[in-house]
Amino acid sequence: MRNIAIPLYPRFTALDVVGPYTVLAFAPECKVSFVAAERVPVSDDRGTLSLTANATYAEVSHPDVVLVPGGPGTIEALADQQLIGWLQGVHQHTQWTTSVCSGSFLLAAAGLLPGVRATSHWGWRERLADFGAVPVEERVVFDGRIVTAAGVSAGIDMALALLAELHDPTIAQAVQLAIEYDPQPPFGAGSPATAPAGMTDAALALIR
């Protein structure tokens, strides 16, 4: 059984959590826990959806995998010493330490990314260099046992790639088929490289 811990903090982005959770929870021999300082509901960045932490940091000290979500609340979470201290402690024992979107900045704040190739949401990715990381314009980045994903929806891709490492590609493909993950977006606006001119400002305004 592989124990996977997803820390929750106020104003996380729901899909950063729920996308990877769905992939990993479908897999055999994977137990996913939501952790926080207390066993309480934690609200997402829209304020309309809450997930309840079913374990505290103190109760989860040796997870096999940590998956840190991002969201507008990342800025405040950078000063959350309980969360940062927990990340520093559990990373010593994890098989994989991972993040989605701006969650990589929390890994960086915990001192886990000096010299590490990492990614994040395109709007903030280059700022990872301020923490000593090496920003990479890729959707999913493996560097040693640290795995980072780009913005929001990239967490699903990361979780599937991670599952292939935890088990094997056949299991990952079976889960992909089970959840019918076959992206066919109606618009080619999912990247600054392909979006219409002027779209980046409008997109950033939605998530600040």
UniProtKB/TrEMBL annotation:
Gene3D superfamilies per the UniProt record, alphabetical: 3.40.50.880
Pfam families named in the record: DJ-1_PfpI (PF01965)
Residues forming coiled coils: none
Domain of life: Bacteria
InterPro entries linked: Class_I_gatase-like, DJ-1/PfpI, INH-QAR
Gene Ontology terms: biological process: regulation of DNA-templated transcription
Domain DJ-1/PfpI positions: 3-164
Protein name: DJ-1/PfpI family protein
Organism: Natronosporangium hydrolyticum
